[in-house]
UniProtKB/TrEMBL annotation:
Keyword Hydrolase among UniProt keywords: yes
Catalytic activity entry: GTP + H2O = GDP + phosphate + H(+)
EC number: 3.6.5.2
SMART domains per UniProt: RAB, RAS, RHO
The gene coding this protein: LOC106060589
Biased segments, Basic and acidic residues type: 230-239
Species name: Biomphalaria glabrata
Name this protein carries in UniProt: small monomeric GTPase
């Protein structure tokens, strides 16, 4: 820690709160642990909720990231993460369509909450468990379309395989959250299994070019400042959304 620099004049390291929300069993805990520890653990107590902290060495600067692995129940107080979070990861499993419909409810209600509070806050829709492709129930195009409706970030990943896939999602929302908080975007980081790896000049230039194409966020490429709600649709999903809202009692 003593060798790390800080970004801001007051000497404090920037801190970001990221909340993971979604139905039970979609892999929120697995994604949290993967990001914090780089390890994959298959079984968790679905009734446990916790907040974890990670110090990121961001190009020699210290960035503090707090991650809340939420567990929403029927009588949950959702304000515990709505007021707290600087960014949201709304997670569903590509192998379970019902979890995608739950994610749709979260997308709508978080978007409405942010608009009501006039807050700028990155929201990412995350389809988890792509390692189980043979059991897929939700097409990638469906996830992309839902994210587009709400001007949100979209990724499909898995906590079971490469750490870089998970890290990329967290780094993306940290970059956007930093812009919303401090007015400028963090530059993307090199991603490698071993952070102490020494790169040759040629390797570094190649890696930087690749990372800039996939991770660098120019202000003109960012989402609109205020997340918009999806247009009203009178279809067969309307009743299902009402049922889900009633079950979760979200934001009442």
């Amino acid at each position: 820690m003593s060798g790390r620099r800080v970004f801001h004049r007051n000497g404090a390291s920037p801190e970001f709160n990221i909340a993971l929300v979604g139905a039970l069993g979609v892999g929120k805990s697995a994604l949290t642990v993967k990001y914090i520890t780089r390890r994959f653990i298959m079984e968790y107590d679905p009734d446990l909720e916790g907040t974890y902290t990670k110090h990121e060495d961001w190009d020699g600067h210290d960035v503090i990231v707090h991650v809340m692995d939420t567990c929403d129940k029927e009588d949950s107080d959702h304000s515990r993460y709505l007021k707290w979070a600087d960014a949201f990861l709304i997670v569903y499993s590509i192998t379970n369509r019902q979890t995608f419909e739950v994610a749709r409810v979260y997308m709508e209600n978080i978007s409405n909450y942010l608009k009501g509070q006039e807050r700028d806050c990155p929201v990412a829709l995350v389809g988890n468990k792509i390692d189980l492709e043979r059991y897929r129930q939700v097409n990638k195009s469906e996830g992309s379309e839902l994210a587009t409706e709400y001007d949100s970030i979209f990724y499909e990943i898995t906590a079971a395989e490469e750490y870089e896939l998970v890290e990329k999602v967290f780094h993306r929302v940290i970059q956007e959250a930093h812009h919303d908080k401090y007015g400028h975007i963090l530059q993307p980081l090199f991603i490698a299994d071993d952070r102490t790896t020494t790169w040759s000049p040629q390797q570094a230039m190649s890696q930087q070019s690749s990372q800039q194409q996939t991770q660098h966020l120019h202000p003109s490429q960012r989402r609109p400042k205020s997340p918009k709600g999806a247009p009203e649709k009178k279809d067969e999903k309307g009743q299902q959304k009402k049922t889900l809202n009633k079950f979760f009692k979200i934001f009442n």
